[in-house]
Amino acid sequence: MRAFSLVSFLFVLLASHMAAARPDGDAQEYIVIPTNPNDQVAVNNTEYALFTTSGFWPVRFYENSRSNTFWLWTTYLRDVEIDGVLRLNGVSGLSLNSRLEDELYVPTAPSKFRSSASPMVKSPHTTPLSIAKRAIELDYTTQKDAVVELVSISQPNTVADPTRFKDYVFETGNGGRSIVYHVEQGVAFTGHPNEFLNVADTHLLTQLSLERGYPADVDTSDAPFHGTCTADKAVGQDYGVSKRATLVVVRMADLTLMEMMCALAEVILDLEDYPERRKRAVVTMSLGGPLYDVTNVVHNMIDGLVGRIIRFDVPVVVPAGNSADESGREQIDCVPAIFASDSNPLIVVGSTNTTGYRSEFSQTGPQLTLYGVGEEVTCHSDPSGLPAINKEGTSFPTAMVAGEIANLLSYDTVPFDTSDGNLVKNLREYLMNGDGSWERTPGIRSLWNGVTEANNPPS
């Protein structure tokens, strides 16, 4: 942690107090980029200028929770103050600190009327490749009478009717060597001790989470227990894909663009501290940012942070988004999913109904990697209540794909090339076109763990 002098401590205390009281009128929170973050005199002068402009002290953010290196500010500004701030010598740019979306879909009609009877948009690649055949002998374990979204993953690609299967058949090793970094506003794992059996001893907390005293095991998601539910789909015993992978919570304080950046920075720091986690870890983030603006420097900083993680040979899995049923928004259009491409192999996941047709809300486009079931989903959420049922959204298949990636990375022989710098792009190709998915309906490739009728015979 940073060592604070008394003056610095009082400054942070004052800044936190001022920032906590949101100003009246049309003021909104902005991320402010310094011209020279290493020039302490200029930083101090610019902070005072920002204060005199808006009446609120900016809050300093550092490169990560252990760093002494200043990175960015956040502060509240009114529309009439923007031009003046941009003219400050110590400011190189700013961006609205946009709210994120936890990709939980709130239905307006029964789900059976909201999935396409035929594929609305085809996956960008539909011809299976021969480069990634799962020619590996594996032992399998069966979870009897599993929830339908798990059953779909082990539905053999030779049987089109999903109703002929009731069990989830999975690799016996099931992620035992892997780490799942779960970026959210906490996970109530201590409230579900039997569901979350494999939890790391330490977790990653953003600067704001530390300052506010937010622990990893308290879920303060804007959509109640969204963090717990999505973590359950990745690593839960009853409802998760990877039963043995280790959960590391990456604790955000708020659902904001700044907190997404800080969370990704904590993952980067952890991978620098523990290089042995590279090639064995996956990052899952069931969150969507703002509409992408190519001129927005902060949006492109998100792209850069994701790229640094990928260069550590660690995949990042994000949702395609839930706005396809809004006019003009069928295509993926939000940060960070929009950054995915062959050269930037972010894993982007869409949603289908239980029979494999694309959900009406699920966005699509060339960035999409594959689909998973994102309707009628069941998960543990509030520790004081029963499991949540009938959840919908691209959040849930995102976490399930991350769970299956954890399984794949724990194989004795991983079924794709994992050489330095190639793991993530080859994983993406494997999921998109190889034996990590199959067309449960025409043009819609859904997550598959390679189980055949020999291990999972139909009824």
TrEMBL record:
<dbReference type="GO" id="GO:0004252">
    <property type="term" value="F:serine-type endopeptidase activity"/>
</dbReference>
<dbReference type="GO" id="GO:0006508">
    <property type="term" value="P:proteolysis"/>
</dbReference>
<dbReference type="InterPro" id="IPR036852">
    <property type="entry name" value="Peptidase_S8/S53_dom_sf"/>
</dbReference>
<protein>
    <submittedName>
        <fullName>Peptidase S8/S53 domain-containing protein</fullName>
    </submittedName>
</protein>
<dbReference type="InterPro" id="IPR050131">
    <property type="entry name" value="Peptidase_S8_subtilisin-like"/>
</dbReference>
<feature type="signal peptide">
    <location>
        <begin position="1"/>
        <end position="21"/>
    </location>
</feature>
<keyword id="KW-0720">Serine protease</keyword>
<keyword id="KW-0732">Signal</keyword>
<keyword id="KW-0645">Protease</keyword>
<comment type="similarity">
    <text>Belongs to the peptidase S8 family.</text>
</comment>
<dbReference type="InterPro" id="IPR000209">
    <property type="entry name" value="Peptidase_S8/S53_dom"/>
</dbReference>
<keyword id="KW-0378">Hydrolase</keyword>
<dbReference type="Pfam" id="PF00082">
    <property type="entry name" value="Peptidase_S8"/>
</dbReference>
<feature type="domain" description="Peptidase S8/S53">
    <location>
        <begin position="220"/>
        <end position="411"/>
    </location>
</feature>
